Amino acid sequence: MDLKSHCPKKVVTAKEAIAEIKNGSRILIGTGCGEPQHLIRTMVKNTKIQDVMVYQMLSWTMADYVNDPNFLRRFALKLFFISSRMRRAAFEGKIDYIPAYLSQIPKLFESQRIGLDVALVQVSPPDRHGFCSLGVSVDITRSGMNAARLVIAQVNPKMPHTWGDSIVHLDEIDYFVEYEEPLVESVTVIKNQEVALRIGYYVNQLIEDGATLQIGFGYMPNAILPHLTDKKDLGIHTQLITDAFIPLLENKIITNKRKTLLEGKVVASLCMGTEKLYKYVDNNPQFYFRSSEFVNDPTVIARNDNFISISSALEVDLTGQVCTDSMNHIFYSGIGDQVDFLRGSAMSKGGFSIIAMPSTAQGDNVSRIVSSLNEGAGVATTRGDVNFVVTEYGIAELEGKSIFQRVMELSQIAHPKFRKDLIEAAKKHHYIFPDQLPPLQDDLIFLEKYKKRHAITNGKVVEFRPLLPSDEFEFRNFYYSLKAETIYMRFFHKMKLFSHEVAQQQWASVDYRQNMSMIGLCQKGGHREIVAIGSYADDGTKRAEIAFVVREDFQGLGVASILLAQLETIARENGFKGFTAMVLEENKAMVRVFKNQYPHAKVTYAGVGEMQIVMDFDPPEVE
Asked: 25 and 174: one domain?
């Protein structure tokens, strides 16, 4: 449709449109890469415009002017999120930050809590029915248009035509300024490829096929996407779409087939990326752009079963409090969409949230996991909202955990050089026992190769992995789930208590090389419980003494044999030539396990009713 022939009085130059803005106006500008650059530049050049208040979600073009004192005397910038280009201006107090949940911002406009006089937006050219599209910027732009008394639109053929709440009829716009220019492009730079690779590896372990994902703002959540290529039928319901989604869409990793809300659709509010992304979403019916009051509404999010929120943070304290928008007293980014999606994921059937972040900042000199949030740091996400925290050192599971457990979970995924100090600080805060041992100050990434999943003969799947300090409470629960007979077979006496001190003794010897403990976990409801433990310890003869405990309902299902084979693999790697074991003569099942694995085992009687079994490993096969 030709605008000049259909509504000639509405088609004006940028100067003419901007001249309609009165001094003292409150102006909303479209978000991020969808902002109308030509209108912004024209407005700034018009020196008659004074004392204007500008509201924007993500600001780009205005960053070119914030160091000009004359500009700052004329314009007051109020931002709901501080972009990287605006960060220094925020540090220097040149802009104002409005902390607000994205889902609630449209209500601020609608209720006139934040009154708007003008909306400056960018749209695609109208179709033959007179409908334009807000393209890559729907989020709060749609609601801002509805609340403003004057709407000025830059009509740009470069703006993609997207579907959903992005559709705007000519009658909703007061003035059109036809001006073609490239959209703002935003390229996400991954700061540390190795760290991103390791975080992606751990996040991958938490995501099942068919899950619906939200990917938050920032480089880290987007850096995770390339590590999901082994998944099937993922769905997307998220605020922001970037270039990182395209390979997963092209390779049918993201299909949206198993979504329970808007099946087959990528639901989003805005795009920020390159021209390749803008061309990809243009007239693409699989993308459904909705405004923030829909996309970010926790009750809407929760209608997606198996919903997983993935976002980042500046720091997390040992109790699970999360800061996302400030470093000390300096505002750095924004609350954004994190809280909305965390709460939506918590209400989703099978849903949960992940906070993914590097363990350190400033060249490994500052820990992002801290004993307490720094002075001035804002709590964006409370202790009660966090499920998983992931760094390059592992996964911390916080949901339903006590402060003691949280300290242990988080300290063991902190950078190794900060772990001891975190434990000492936790003791001073009285979060943990005074005798608590810190996690090893080693990079334990090598333990990942020891993780295995096995289907056992009763059809259940057991995950086997090394024992960690944070397993103390599950270890205790496992012990107290055992019958007295089973305990006697393992410890040779009727051990009645498994106290914190006993657990510390167990943990004190584990170094994952000369002394090793492996556990077997099985899913029960919403968590996994320990059903078996196998350990070896250096006996000083190039052999290691080995012992097992398997819960009664998992005995006779091959669990001990699996653990034995895994422990042999680890023991061989660490230079051991065999195992020894002390077994009660009446423990015929355990004797059978050993003899089946080591037919040439030597058995001698070590005392009344006790046998020592010596099991040498077969020589390694020569290739």
From this structure: yes
